Amino acid sequence: MAPAPTRSDCEALDQADPLAPYRGEFVVDDDALIYFDGNSLGRLPKATVTRLQRLLADEWGGRLVRSWRETWLAMPVRVGDLIGTGLLGAEAGETVVGDNTTVSLYKAVSAALDARPGRRTVVIERDNFPTDRYLMESLARQRGLVIRWVDAGTSQGLTVDDLAGVVDDSVAVTLLSHVDYRSAAILDLGAMTTLVHESGALMVWDLCHSVGSVPMQLDRAGVDIAVGCTYKYLNGGPGAPAFTYVNRARQDELAQPIWGWWGRADMFDMAEGYQPYPDIRAWLTGTPGIMSLAGVETGVEMVCRAGIQEIRRKSTALSALAIELYDEWLAGRGVGLASPRDPHRRGSHVTVTHPGAVRLTDELAAKGVVPDFRRPDGIRIGLAPLTTRFVDVYDGLVVLRDLLG
Amino acid sequence: MAPAPTRSDCEALDQADPLAPYRGEFVVDDDALIYFDGNSLGRLPKATVTRLQRLLADEWGGRLVRSWRETWLAMPVRVGDLIGTGLLGAEAGETVVGDNTTVSLYKAVSAALDARPGRRTVVIERDNFPTDRYLMESLARQRGLVIRWVDAGTSQGLTVDDLAGVVDDSVAVTLLSHVDYRSAAILDLGAMTTLVHESGALMVWDLCHSVGSVPMQLDRAGVDIAVGCTYKYLNGGPGAPAFTYVNRARQDELAQPIWGWWGRADMFDMAEGYQPYPDIRAWLTGTPGIMSLAGVETGVEMVCRAGIQEIRRKSTALSALAIELYDEWLAGRGVGLASPRDPHRRGSHVTVTHPGAVRLTDELAAKGVVPDFRRPDGIRIGLAPLTTRFVDVYDGLVVLRDLLG
Question: Which segments of chain A have a pLDDT < 70?
C-alpha cells in the first residue's frame, strides 16, 4: 500500500484542481469551516444572491404580477430542461421542476401504478431514504398493494442479482435510489431498469443523492420516471423544489394523479373539465415557489458550466482520499467503512461507522467540522466537488482522528 | 343617490386612513402605477427584502445546514400558527404551511373522503377556481365518485338554500371557496358548515381569496379543514406555499394521504414504518421551500400588525367606492357589475363585465392600470387594503371610463 497522502500532497491536489476556482463563486464567510454536508444543503452561490436581488427588486417589486408572463411561467420547464439536458441525459421536454421530492415521488409512483393496473406488488429497498419508504407505504395502504422489501446482499449496495430475486410479473413498480443516502453505493441504473422492464414493471429512480455528482443517461437506459433533489449538489437552497423526469416515450401512458391548474392545457382559459397539457407540463400541480426555483436555476447553471464529467472526476478523487486516510488513521480504532471501495460503485460521500457516532458528530461540529450523523452509527462525509477542497478532507479527518484519542 | 365622490374626496379618505402608512412599508418603485392585482400577487414588503438578505447571508450562507435545527425546522408550524391565530380564528397547533394550494387541497379532500368511506358523492361549485374543480375531478376519477356541481342561484353568490338543495346523506365532502375568485361573493361559512355537518358530510373551505382581507372564525364555525393561499393578501411572494388548517377536534380522525419524512413522528429517527406526528405536523409531506416560507412570515406579520378588522373596514370602503364610481361612470355603457352590492357579501375585489374585457384589460395595462382579466368577460379590480389608495380606485376607473370613449 502506498503511503497515505500528506497535507502537502493535498495542497498540491488543490493547486492542480481545475474546479478549484468554483469555490470562489460561493459565499464562504468562514474559510476555516470544514463543511462535509454539501450533500444535505449545498452552499450558497454568489450568483443566487444577485439573482434573488433582481427577482425581488425588478421582478416582484417592480413588474409585480406581470412577471408571470414575462418570465416566471416558463421557469418550471426552463429549469427542468437545464437539469435534464445538462445532467440527466435527457432531451428537452422530459424534465420539470415543481413540488417537493416527497410529493413528486408520490405522483411518479402513482402514475406508474395506474399504468400497471393488474399488478399488486411494489418493490423498494429496505434501506431506501425514509420518505421513499413512507410514501410507498401510503400508496400501498390506499391501493391494497403488497410491498416487497429488498435488501442489499452486502454493504457494497444492491446488486442486479439481489433485485432479480424479487422482481417478477406481479410487480407493478420498482422504486430505487441511484445512490444510497447512507453508504453512497451506486446502483446499476441501466441493468436494473432493463431487469425491471423484462418483468413488465415500471422503474422509478430517486436521484436525490446522485444528480449533480454522478453522470447518468436516463434516455439511453430507458428509465420511465425519475425524481431528484435540487438542494444538495445543485445548490438550489433550503427546500428548493424537486425535478421530475418522464421519458418521452412514456409521457402518453403515464398520468400523474394531482390535477391542478398548472397541469391543465391552456391554463389561463380556466375551462371546465381537466385536460392535461400534451407535454411535460402535465406533471405540474399548482404554483411553484418562484424564489426557490430561481435558486435552482443559478445553482444548476454553475454545475452545468463546471461539467458533470469533471465534477465526477474530482468527486472520485476526494472520496478516494477520504478512504486512504481512513485506512491510515481510523481503521482498527473502532471505526468501520460503510461505503464501497470500488470508485465505480461509490457516489460523492463516504460514511464511516462508530458506536459513538452521535457524540463524535457533535464533537466534530464543535471543532468546526460539519458532517451528518446517519442512523444507526454513521458519520457521513459529504464531498461537494465545487466547494470541498482536498485539504478539507485531510484537515477534517485529522480532527476525527484526534477525537478518537 | 348621493353625488359620486370627487378626487378630492378620495384624497381626504386617504388622509384619514389609519392604514395609509402601511404603503410605505412596501417596495413601490413606480408610485403612479395603479395596481389592481394585489389579490393575485401581493406587493413586496420591505421587511421581506431584509429578511431574505439575512436568510441568504447568515442562515444559508453562514450557518448552512445547521440552520435547519436553529430556525428552519420550526417554520411550517410557526408561520402556520401566525396565520391561524391571527387571521383564521384558530388556536395554535391547527395550521401549518408547506405544499402549494393544489397539493394541499388534494390532501385535504383525500383525508375527508377517507373519513367518510361509505359515501360516494362530493359537492363543489361549478364556478369554483379551476384548481379546486380539477383536483376534485382527479379524486373522483381515482375513487369512482360522483361530483355534484352546485350553481349559485344569482350573481350574489351561492346561498345556504342553494347548497341545501344538493347536500344529502350520500355526500362525503363539500369543497367551497369562502370568497369567489371572480365575483368576490362571500359565502356564509358558518351556516354552510353547519348545513354540511347536519348531513354527516365534512366541509373543506378554500380561503385563497378571503384570508388576510375577510375576518373568519374557523374554530367557532366548526370547520373541518381549510386551505388558503399566501401570495395574495398575505404578500408572501410568487408561489409562496399554502397553509392548511385542520380543526383540532378532527385531527385524530383525518389523515392526509402523502406520507413523507416531514410528517413522520421523530422525523430524524428515520425509522421503519410510517407513524404520523400526533399533531398538525402530520400534514407536512417533504421539505418546504424555506425562502418562500420566510416571505410568508414577514408578510403575515405585517397583516396581523395592521389588524384584520381594520383591513376589512378599509376593504369595504374601497370596494364601495369602486361601485359608486361604476354607477356614476360605467353602468349603462356596456359595463355590468358582477360583484354583490351588499358589503357584507362582498370580499376585497370588484369585478365589472364588458364584451371587450380582454382588450380593455390590455389597454388599461398600457396606461399603467393593472387589473386582471377573468373569463369570460370580467375585469377584476383587486383592492389590497395595505397598498391600494382611495385615489388609486378613482384614477384607475377614470382611465377605464375614458377608454370606453
Answer: 1
